[in-house]
Amino acid sequence: MENTDTIAALATPSGESAIALIRVTGALCEKIAMEAFTLAKSPAPRHASYGSYRDLSGEILDDVVYILFRGPKSYTGEDVLEVSCHGNPLIATRLLEDLLARGCRQSDPGEFTRRAFLNGRMDLTQAEAVMELIQARSDRAIRVANKQLRGNFGRQLDELKMRLLATVATIEAYIDFPDEDLPPEQKKAEIEAIRSVLAFCGRIIDSGKYAAFLRDGVKTLILGEPNAGKSSLLNCLLGFERAIVSDEPGTTRDFIRERIMLDGYCIQVMDTAGLREAANGIEQQGIRKTVELTEEADLFLLVIDGTLPAPTLPEEVSRQITADNCILVQNKADLGALQPLPSPLDGLRRVTMSALSGTGLESLKSAAVEMIDAHLAQDQDDLILVNARHSAALKELSECLESAIRNFEAGEPAEFVASELRGAVEAIGRVLGRIDNEDMLDVLFSSFCIGK
Ligand code: GDP
């Protein structure tokens, strides 16, 4: 174990609550437990006990439940002491101060998980999954983060590494016999093996889009002319009055952003300023903002007043809209006969609804989920929450593999190919965190919360 000092932190949010949890890890845990709870012998590991916590002066600070986990079978791999006290911030603070007085140090953000990583309890992709899990905003994000936390991604990478090392071994076996070449059949098989690793990397890099969907939500823009019912649709989706609904065209001059859950997806819905030609100064600004937002949107809900002739959209907006990313909401169906749709709007997926009464809302929701599913076009079971660090290492890995394939096919010396494949194996090691890099660890763990 690399760390000998004992660290402590409040693991629950500060403020009043039913319970506050204080976590301690390091060599002093057992001693602290025995002294603070005046025990004659070490507490049974992994056993919840009830006891009075006494500070160094002997005063009882609180009656608490505590558990001692003995390393290496603990979160950090070292001894861990968890103390659940009453959720009064004053009690938690006094407990924490007493722990510092007993020789602990206040932990840095992410330091518990950093120790777990350094002590081999998890690889770096799992440590990152802890963070993803804490910050997940949707059921799907939780599901994917959980899989990653159990080490799925790490195992897949290990498998790739073994495949590449097997190829390196085969190639190197021939380096010692310069007069012999790899038989063509075997060479073909090895190139295929490298290609399959390359394809896997490509899939993971491409799934970055999915990770962004899960992390930030699917950016969904409600578009349409003033008075089409955009704000009413947003309210209908949210289930409460949030956007200002008004008869006067041009009320949503800026834009409104809300999150909703749809079939486990987090949807970031944005209601925008209505698009129309004859707009005044402020409204023009709103329209410019809408046009800007179309560039980063994943999904569009184009709302039209179904009783009126369909509008002509500004060119900058209509070029962003396709049959794959836009649902046409023919609104105000409660008012009677709907106008026929001109081309190209008739090519869009259409939902007829009344944002006022909510009729048609369920069809709109399922259409949106189907479109998101189709958009991803990935086997979602395979996916991980790709982050910038993974992408960079996987791109480097892909480059090594591409170059190895090129050189292998061109009949370059086997040493070359083998050394490129070794570079690829190192890139895999970097994703898993098996290469020392203190700076990278500092950056990664500093984004964690204290106590995790
Ligand atoms: P926005 O400017 O596109 O955001 O439109 P609003 O949501 O503010 O709605 C404009 C007007 O149309 C308001 O008076 C709404 O009550 C009305 N409205 C919106 N949706 C419907 C609908 O489905 N049916 C009817 N009859 N009126 C609606």
From TrEMBL:
Its main location: cytoplasm. Residues 217-373 form the TrmE-type G domain. Its cofactor is K(+). The keyword Metal-binding applies. GTP binds at residues 227-232, 246-252, 271-274, 331-334. Keywords: Cytoplasm, GTP-binding, Hydrolase, Magnesium, Metal-binding, Nucleotide-binding, Potassium, tRNA processing. GO terms for cellular component: cytoplasm. It is found in: Cytoplasm. One of its GO terms (biological process) is tRNA wobble uridine modification. Belongs to the TRAFAC class TrmE-Era-EngA-EngB-Septin-like GTPase superfamily. TrmE GTPase family. Homodimer. Heterotetramer of two MnmE and two MnmG subunits. This is tRNA modification GTPase MnmE. It comes from Pelagicoccus enzymogenes.
